[in-house]
Amino acid sequence: MNANFVIMGLPASGKTTFLAALWHLVESAETDCRLVMDSYRGDFTYLNSIADAWRNFQKIPRTSQTGDTEVTIYLHDRETNARGTALFPDLAGEIFDLQVEERRCRPEFIKQADAEDGILFFINANVKEDGLSIVDYNSRLPPEFRSSDLPELGDVTTSVAMPEWEPKFLPAQVRIVQLLSDLIRAPFTYRSRKLALLISAWDLARDQGHTPDQWLALNMPLVHQFFRANGKSFTSRVYGVSAQGINLDDDAAVDVAADMIPSRRIQIVGHDDGEHDLTAPLVWLMSAEE
Ligand SMILES: Nc1nc2c(ncn2[C@@H]2O[C@H](COP(=O)(O)OP(=O)(O)O)[C@@H](O)[C@H]2O)c(=O)[nH]1
Ligand SMILES: [Mg+2]
User: Which of the residues 98, 99, 126, 156 has the least number of beta carbons within 10 Å of its own beta carbon?
Assistant: First the structure.
């Protein structure tokens, strides 16, 4: 069997950082990973440059600045010998924004999504503004827009110009649910899919003491509810992933991490897998385990 995986996620959800750390892991063999790389297809210079930035605590160049770089990594499981192919469209991420805002996607993506045997879907834990209640949101608005200050119905003397709503104002969790629900209707072929949800930048959420699944329920209730309601379409698992390991703006944390073997910075939680093994979600996707 050769399983195909596709990587999805909104811009800045952590896809490139994951790819950089994965490239370092499979190339350096510093830590034991279940999956071993056989070969790859893509731009070697690009892969080395992102892994280099990752090792040196530099911000990884945004994909939109480096152009579209598609990378395919061929892997095998050192325990079962099962083979897998991970396709990182790693296109400027914005393609998934376009799919939501303009309801368009590339025909190749439909083909890839129809042929996949598992999805890695990224969500960045750093989404403070996404779950604001109406009360919180109202209090942030300039006074003239607050609902208690809006003119009474029938008051024609005051007119407040509210900005016109546009799809670009959609919160992340609405976009995510749209991308997921697109997969269960045409032009995508309907079938049951396996999906590993990776909550990236987990180092920022870790101290809250929640499991990744609890984090999702608290911070992205719409996405959490979507998976509960669509168990027939998606068999899912939620992981917390810290591919970078630390916040790069935190100088003290960088100093501590600089003394470690780079692979030890990586952390993955949620299921009883190796603590530093980024390939664990792919191993689960490849397995027959539900
Ligand atoms: N603190 C922290 N930040 C991270 C981690 N992984 C990614 N980030 C940050 O999240 C942002 C988006 O990451 P990136 O990989 O470029 O996302 P992409 O657009 O989906 O490829 C960047 O600012 C990264 O520095 C992590 O493990 N920890
Ligand atoms: Mg990227």
Answer: 156
Take atom 18 of ligand 1 and give the residue whose Cα is closest.
12
In this structure, the strands spanning 2-9 and 83-88 are parallel
Is any atom of ligand 1 closer than 6 Å to the C-beta of 203?
A: yes
- CATH placement of domain 2-149+163-286: 3.40.50.300
pLDDT in tens, 2-46: 788 999 999 889 998 999 999 898 888 777 788 888 899 888 888
Token look-up 């810290």 returns 242
Mutate to test the pocket of ligand 1, among 50, 57, 88, 244 (most ligand atoms within 8 A of CB): 244
Ligand 2 is an ion; its neighbours by CB within 5 Å are: 16, 63
pTM of the model: 0.89
Question: How far, in Å, CA of 282 to CA of 75, rounded?
Answer: 10
Domain boundaries, the chain: 2-149+163-286
